[in-house]
Design a protein that fits this description.
alpha/beta, Rossmann fold
Length: 195
């Protein structure tokens, strides 16, 4: 009597092949325009900043509330732990006004040295089936738009976009890593100096 493989057996076999084929995660970063000099300053220079952050999701974005919480936690964590500036205040952008207008108002009224605007366009896991020998390729993706304003400025002194990805063949990630992922994307793009 021959035992026919069940759906569960086939799925376990597929998973085993996938695990044997990979799980090597790699990180890629694209800055546009590139290269970008570091935006983070040594805390000894006493540079103070206001960071305004918001989101600009695509129309069909899923789980918006979870992604908003992940973005908030990751951005706050990065600026709290990175030492980018001597003093930093992180605020959520008001959704009723254009980010550029809000940044200009804050820059005009601010006694800070820098007003930084971080717009989150993408934050989430990615998964591709059958795209490599591993059969499953995944990871996470972060897409940001960053603008830096100087005091009393109405246009940004610098503006660039960030596309950060971490993953590879056999890698499957969920939403739990998103706060750490956005913090890593900020670190790679703003380039804080090692402590």
């Amino acid at each position: 009597m021959h035992n026919r493989p069940t759906g569960r057996t086939c799925l376990l076999g597929l998973l085993a092949v996938t695990l044997l084929a990979g799980c090597a995660a790699s990180t890629s970063l694209t800055l546009t325009p590139s290269p970008q000099p570091a935006l983070c300053q040594r805390s000894t220079q006493r540079i103070n900043a206001v960071v305004l952050w918001g989101t600009k999701w695509r129309v069909d974005q899923k789980d918006v509330a979870d992604r908003e919480v992940a973005a908030s936690n990751g951005i706050a964590r990065f600026f709290r732990e990175s030492g980018c500036f001597a003093g930093v205040e992180v605020r959520r952008l008001a959704s009723s006004t254009e980010p550029r207008e809000q940044a200009a108002v804050v820059a005009n009224l601010s006694k800070n040295d820098v007003v930084l605007v971080v717009l989150v366009r993408e934050l989430g896991p990615i998964l591709k089936l059958g795209s490599s020998a591993a059969l499953i390729e995944g990871g996470t993706e972060v897409v940001l738009e960053i603008s830096a304003y100087e005091p009393r400025a109405t246009t940004p002194a610098r503006a660039f976009s960030v596309h950060w990805q971490n993953g590879g063949p056999g890698v499957v990630k969920g939403v739990a890593s998103l706060p750490a992922d956005i913090a890593s994307a900020l670190a790679a793009s703003l380039q804080p100096e090692p402590k």
